[in-house]
């Protein structure tokens, strides 16, 4: 079984760390918590998480500097970032989004809304990994999502958009792998 998605929480308030960690773990995510901007950069570069929840007001390097640094490096530029902060001024929100944050949530926040936004951002991130003109090749399977076309051993098979998406997702998801193709209702082993 593949590992669940990893979320790095960058926060210095212990009560918020506990709230986020408890709820993310309960929702099936793996969680790594760090308390400073410097720790965040090191941890994120080493762990390559699926998503980062980033406070702005941190000891040492602030969250804006962390975000800016992550977006400047190839290894971390595509990691989704949700800023979670008490800074609710319009200028702060705009600055955070312009520096590369994918979403901005102000404190206090609803944990249910935060989890929903985490899931939505991760879903969009996974979907955007495969472009409409990309062709996937896995063993004897060729998948062209844009044409809704799958070729197995040079035999062309057409599927509706949803079934091609299921096949593409199954073949590219670190959580599923190739095996579940036979279980998706659109082909057999």
Q: What would your notes on this structure say?
A:
This protein is α/β, with parallel strands linked by helices. The chain folds into 2 domains: 6-127, Response regulator (Rossmann fold, 3-Layer(aba) Sandwich), CATH 3.40.50.2300; 136-183, no CATH class. The protein has 6 helices and 9 strands. It has helices spanning 14-26, 37-47, 63-71, 90-98, 111-127, 161-172; strands at 6-10, 30-34, 51-54, 81-85, 103-106, 136-138, 141-144, 149-152, 155-158. A hairpin with a 2-residue loop joins strand 6 (136-138) and strand 7. Helix 2 packs parallel to helix 3 (63-71). Residues 174-189 have low confidence and may be disordered.
Short description:
With 189 residues, the protein is α/β, with parallel strands linked by helices. The chain has helices at residues 14-26, 37-47, 63-71, 90-98, 111-127, 161-172; strands spanning 6-10, 30-34, 51-54, 81-85, 103-106, 136-138, 141-144, 149-152, 155-158.
Strand and helix map with partners:
Layout: E1 6-10, H1 14-26, E2 30-34, H2 37-47, E3 51-54, H3 63-71, E4 81-85, H4 90-98, E5 103-106, H5 111-127, E6 136-138, E7 141-144, E8 149-152, E9 155-158, H6 161-172
Helix pairs in contact: 2-3
């Amino acid at each position: 079984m593949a590992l669940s998605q990893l979320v790095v929480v960058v926060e210095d308030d212990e009560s918020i760390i506990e709230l986020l960690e408890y709820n993310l773990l309960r929702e099936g995510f793996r969680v790594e918590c760090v308390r400073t901007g410097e720790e965040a950069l090191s941890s994120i570069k080493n762990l390559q998480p699926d998503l980062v929840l980033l406070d702005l007001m941190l000891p040492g390097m602030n969250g804006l500097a962390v975000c800016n640094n992550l977006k400047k490096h190839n290894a971390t530029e595509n990691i989704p970032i949700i800023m979670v902060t008490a800074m609710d001024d319009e200028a702060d929100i705009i600055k955070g989004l312009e520096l590369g944050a994918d979403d901005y949530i102000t404190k206090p926040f609803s944990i249910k809304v935060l989890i929903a936004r985490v899931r939505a951002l991760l879903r969009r991130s996974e979907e955007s990994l495969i472009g409409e003109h990309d062709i996937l090749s896995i063993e004897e399977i060729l998948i062209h999502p844009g044409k809704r076309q799958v070729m197995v051993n040079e035999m062309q098979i057409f599927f509706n958009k949803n079934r091609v998406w299921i096949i593409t997702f199954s073949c590219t998801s670190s959580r599923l792998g190739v095996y579940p193709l036979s279980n998706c209702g659109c082909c057999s082993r």
